[in-house]
Design goal:
Blueprint (H helix, E strand, L loop, with lengths): L12 H7 L7 H10 L6 H4 L10 H6 L28 E5 L2 E5 L26 H12 L6 E5 L8 H12 L6 E6 L1 H4 L6 H8 L5 E7 L8 H13 L2 E7 L8 H13 L2 E7 L14 H14 L7 E6 L4 E4 L5 E3 L5 E4 L5 E4 L6
Parallel strand pairs: 2-3, 3-4, 4-5, 5-6, 6-7, 7-8
Antiparallel strand pairs: 1-2, 8-9, 10-11, 11-12
Length: 355
């Protein structure tokens, strides 16, 4: 790690060259990628990058790669089908009891594997007041909606005032019981996660508030990031994690084990380990499903249930998430079951029922 510190976010290829993260000879190819997809590297992220390591897992997540301009025919601009389930601008209703609201279209950083990379970045418009009002009306008219997922972009880039106003508006809907905010901010800009932000999310209402933290490598959970998580927790939020299984970043059991343990120690419950979506220019990040399943089997041997995420794939075409982890139970022909334990040993089990 360089310990590189800067007073501003790096947003251009020239910034990356000056910081020593991109060789001058790669300036042109980096510029070509940056012209296509948004670029931002915060001070917190820059301090973790090791420019002397060509395989640095932090750099791999945030620095442009020429392979991003190679698009496989199977890759789609909307790989999980948000638009197919969007009855209103900025609102996705894929599951009966919950909706997703895209409050903003910008982030503090831009991940090179982002599944919304075609629609976010500087200059993209946030959800207007009129569109947010329409989303609220949509929720109010449907009592089956129990949860609202706030996303973007990264919704926590909004000011505490805007966050509080959003929270109050949602909390005023009686049948809406849960608000879940998806964010990378505690990891990539922990200084922006203030006590005022925590209060804005959780104060003055009795709804359940969750923050789903996107983090992919244990090095990202710095003391500053853990302190940011603690501020959110002490403010009243419950934290869960979302990670993406990424080639060259966390596709080994040692790294995933360290990440999941670090999350639990920070009072963040591991929630999802996502299989990489078919977003344009991201094939170099994806890991075979069979390897993902093998990694989950190994994690089961190493970790308690508290530290285990669910390995999921978002089925293209708006069909939703489904668990794709390895099965531990198999039907036997005589009505029994073969159960595989954490060590990989098989055992026969039969239901003993009466009445």
């Amino acid at each position: 790690m360089t310990g590189y510190r800067l007073s501003r976010t790096l947003t251009t290829p020239e910034d990356l060259v000056e910081a020593g993260f991109v060789a001058p000879a790669r300036r042109r190819e980096t510029a070509a990628v940056a012209a296509r997809y948004a670029l931002a590297v915060t001070s917190a992220v820059a301090s973790l990058i090791d420019p002397a390591d060509p395989a640095d897992p932090i750099a791999r997540q945030y620095l442009p790669d020429a392979r991003e301009l190679i698009r496989d025919p199977a890759e789609e601009a909307d790989p999980i089908g948000d638009d197919l389930k969007s009855p209103l601008k900025g609102l996705v209703h894929r599951y009966r009891d919950r909706v997703l609201i895209k409050l903003v279209a910008v982030c503090a950083v831009y991940c090179r594997f982002c599944f919304r990379r075609e629609t976010i970045g500087p200059g993209a418009r946030a959800l207007s007041e009129a569109d947010f009002a329409a989303a609220l009306a949509y929720i109010r008219a449907r009592p089956e909606i129990w949860e609202a997922v706030l996303t973007g972009g990264d919704p926590l880039v909004l000011s505490p005032r805007r966050l509080a106003a959003t929270t109050r508006a949602l909390a005023a809907i009686p049948h809406l019981k849960v608000m879940r905010w998806h964010s990378r901010l505690p990891v990539v800009a922990p200084e922006r996660v203030t006590k005022a932000m925590a209060r804005a999310l959780s104060a003055d209402h009795d709804k359940a508030v969750y923050v789903a933290l996107h983090v992919n490598h244990p090095r990202e959970l710095t003391p500053e990031a853990r302190a940011a998580c603690r501020r959110l927790i002490e403010g009243g939020a419950t934290l869960v994690s979302q990670s993406v299984l990424l080639k060259g970043v966390n596709d080994d059991a040692h790294t995933l084990e360290a990440l999941m343990r670090a999350l639990v120690e920070a009072r963040v419950k591991p929630y999802y380990l996502h299989h990489g979506d078919l977003a344009p220019g991201t094939a170099h990040f994806r890991v075979p499903i069979a390897k993902g399943q093998a990694l989950m089997s190994e994690l089961r041997r190493r970790l308690s249930g508290l530290a285990m995420p669910t390995y999921v794939l978002d089925i293209p075409g708006a069909h939703g998430k489904t668990p794709i982890g390895p099965s531990a139970i198999f039907a036997e022909g005589d009505g029994g079951w073969r159960i595989v334990d954490a060590a990989g040993e098989s055992h026969i089990y039969r239901d003993i029922l009466r009445g």
